[in-house]
Amino acid sequence: DFSSLKLSRPELFDFEGVSMIHYFTDNWEKVKNFQARPDDILIATYPKAGTTWVSYILDLLYFGNDQEHQTSQPIYMRVPFLESFFKVIPSGTELADNLPTSPRLIKTHLPVQLVPKSFWEQNSKIVYVARNAKDNAVSYFHFDRMNMGQPEPGNWNTFLQKFMEGKNVFGPWYDHVNGWWEKKQSYSNLLYLFYEDLVEDTGREVEHLCSFLGLSTSIEEREKITKGVQFDAMKQNKMTNYSTIPVMDFKISPFMRKGKVGDWKNHFTVAQNEQFDEVYKQKMKNTTVKFRTEI
Ligand code: A3P
């Protein structure tokens, strides 16, 4: 059960060149052979980039009028986490195979090269969400502190050093955002969104999503959704705030923590920031993707 997870945090190991924990590789045969459908919508992100936010936006766009759907199941059951295999809830592949609604919304944190090939074969739509490295690192640090299903993060400085080396679950942030960015150039059914844009103008990004998905929602509907997915609303909402997952200790840090752009300034020392910028320049020298660390 979940309480035993509290006793033993998982260890990081190398899996096909990516740092992983066993919860995301134990079901690999099924993940690798997962049968995607043409109308599936895959929500892909590096952990802590705004996965839950975009999952909930899409869930409301498709199933917002279904009251029962909105109140009976938390978001992590409605939007299966494909590679997850926690044993206490059905695996991601099992949940996805048994989803009663369509289209299926499916979440993954896999780097692009590990995504099951049927998604490409079926030409499924994919929404990728990226968040600037500094805020992403801060959010991931607090997540690893409070989630006993994640490796022990150590203190902030230890964690930051590991982040720069890519020693996090799902590997280096840099490779993840760059790999998906590159994919976008050849795969037209991929929408690449930024967390910072969502914070800046959620309504505009909801519209952006609608046009990518070919949805004709009314202005009123979009306004209602935009309101319902604001940070405070989602923090209060038991279906979206992860309060039903016992493996997370909200006394250490809540899942819906701050939801801001620029919180990194409260964590990075001047020296850490200089070192980070130096590493960033190196790792990002061959890409055109640009991030905003403040808005
Ligand atoms: P912080 O830790 O910076 O607060 P994920 O869903 O990928 O795990 O990402 C979680 C991060 O997204 C957390 O960041 C969380 O607060 C933020 N988030 C979730 N919903 C949000 C919303 N409606 N508005 C702004 N940020 C949101």
Structure description:
With 295 residues, this protein is of the alpha/beta class. The chain has a single domain (2-283), classed as 3-Layer(aba) Sandwich (Rossmann fold), CATH 3.40.50.300. 44% of the residues lie in helices and 9% in strands. The chain has 15 helices and six strands. It has helices at 2-7, 28-32, 51-63, 67-72, 75-78, 92-97, 117-121, 133-146, 156-165, 173-186, 195-200, 202-213, 219-228, 231-236, 270-283; strands at 13-15, 18-20, 41-45, 105-108, 125-130, 190-194. A four-stranded parallel beta sheet has the order 4-3-5-6, sandwiched between helices. Strand 1 (13-15) and strand 2 form a beta hairpin. The longest helix has 14 residues, at 133-146. Adenosine-3'-5'-diphosphate (A3P) binds at residues 45, 47-53, 135, 139, 142, 199, 229-231, 234, 256-259, 263.
Proportion in helices = 40-55%
Gap between N and C termini: 42 Å
The secondary-structure class comes to alpha/beta
**What ligands are attached or bound here?**
adenosine-3'-5'-diphosphate
Assigned CATH architecture: 3-Layer(aba) Sandwich
Taking all residues together, what is the mean pLDDT? 96
Measured on Cα atoms, how large is the radius of gyration?
A: 18 Å
Strand content: 5-15%
* Uncertain residue segments: none
Tell me the number of structural domains: 1
Q: What is the third-level CATH name, the topology? A: Rossmann fold
Shape: globular
Largest sheet: 4 strands, parallel
